[in-house]
Amino acid sequence: MSTTSALFAGLMSGTSLDGVDAVVADFAAPHPRVASTAFLAYPADLRDALLALNAAGHDELRRAAELSVRLASLYAEATLAALRNGGLAANDIAALGCHGQTVRHQPALGYSLQLNHPALLAERTGITVVADFRNRDVAAGGQGAPLVPAFHDCILRDDGEHRVVLNIGGISNITDLAPGKPTRGFDTGPGNMLLDGWAARHLGTPYDAGGEWGAQGQVVPDLLKRLMAHPFLAQAAPKSCGREEFNLDWLDAQLDRGIAAVEVQATLLELTARSIVEATLRECGQPDTLAVCGGGVHNAPLMGRLAALLPDTRVVSTADFGVSPDFLEALAFAWLARRCLHGEPGNLPEVTGARGPRVLGAIYPA
Ligand SMILES: Nc1ncnc2c1ncn2[C@@H]1O[C@H](COP(=O)(O)OP(=O)(O)O)[C@@H](O)[C@H]1O
Ligand SMILES: [Mg+2]
């Protein structure tokens, strides 16, 4: 590995279970420059196997171990693709930050579990791997999530305007960047996860492309009211959530007979937009700009509802600030790997609720 290189790689595979985002970034300048990217979609059987492991089931340990091996192979493939796309070699890269695939997130019980096999990833790529970013924060009494706000603070803070960064992944999380105030952040609740699950059940596709199906339905007010009553949504920050809180079993329990599937999808979209906006206004006040990243940015009706619910806020993609919305989180894990190697804290205690700043991650040398 290169111990002096400013090039770091990052891998993100989030709760949406869509696949793995890979990025190589140059941290030589104050603002990181993306050198190359790659995305590998999860094959349908891998997504199904990971989804199944999010709930209790038979022979979990073997399944988890075998999936970790399979994931590490895919992570290596994505990393090598990003290197190829940038004309780079493994020894150009100082380290690779790999988030892993969350299957259980239970900070109140003392753990957050990401499937990963960092030793195998180091072996396959020849790059030093930094992994297990969340558990040190959890051990220090924090939520272990979200971890991206520290990076948002680093690249998107502006003295002249109140910005909120919104990441719409499987779960949605926001970062409050108010001039003169400490950075705050938390999970707001569902992002794409329920929309994806419902689309998979009724369309047989991993997601509702462009949000077009949901846009044909009408919101069902009674159902929306029941969904908005989920206790997580009213909780004060710091807070984080996962598939434990929001899943199709929970949704099924809220449904009345006779509601058409397309109306449920429209209502889920409204739930996602409203829960984000209500949490933003309650915890951050009204921002000048809402900078959106994550796959939800491609759901035009969802972006439209956010803009309509925040008429005095400029709602834009982070692309407007020169940062690809699809690779911002992977970039954050490249940055977190660099922080770890330099012995610098990666968490913000105000965000996660940890007792103090901590160096996050475990290092697997190349
Ligand atoms: N063209 C699109 N139309 C609608 N939704 C999209 C589109 N592209 C991506 N998405 C949504 O974004 C999700 C992936 O977002 P991502 O930011 O990778 O989430 P995570 O971090 O949880 O993996 C997909 O599952 C899907 O819901
Ligand atoms: Mg993803």
Unreliable residue runs: none
The number of distinct helices, counting runs of at least 4 residues, comes to 13
Bound molecule kinds, no repeats: adenosine-5'-diphosphate, magnesium ion
The CATH homologous superfamily of the largest domain is called: ATPase, nucleotide binding domain
CATH topology grouping of the largest domain: Nucleotidyltransferase, domain 5
Protein structure class: alpha/beta
> Strand arrangement, largest sheet?
3-2-1-4-7-13
List keywords for this structure.
alpha/beta; Nucleotidyltransferase, domain 5; 2 domains; binds adenosine-5'-diphosphate; binds magnesium ion; ATP binding; ATPase_NBD; EC 2.7.1.170; Anhydro-N-acetylmuramic acid kinase; kinase
Give a verbal description of the structure.
The protein has 2 domains: 7-143 and 327-364, Nucleotidyltransferase, domain 5 (2-Layer Sandwich), CATH 3.30.420.40; 149-321, Nucleotidyltransferase, domain 5 (2-Layer Sandwich), CATH 3.30.420. The strands form 3 sheets. The protein has a 6-stranded mixed beta sheet with strand order 3-2-1-4-7-13. It has a 5-stranded mixed beta sheet with strand order 10-9-8-11-12, sandwiched between helices. By secondary structure, it is of the alpha/beta class. A hairpin with a 6-residue loop joins strand 2 and strand 3. The protein contains 13 helices and 13 strands. The protein binds adenosine-5'-diphosphate (ADP) and magnesium ion (MG). Magnesium ion binds at residues 14, 16, 18, 21. Magnesium ion binds next to loops. It catalyses: 1,6-anhydro-N-acetyl-beta-muramate + ATP + H2O = N-acetyl-D-muramate 6-phosphate + ADP + H(+).
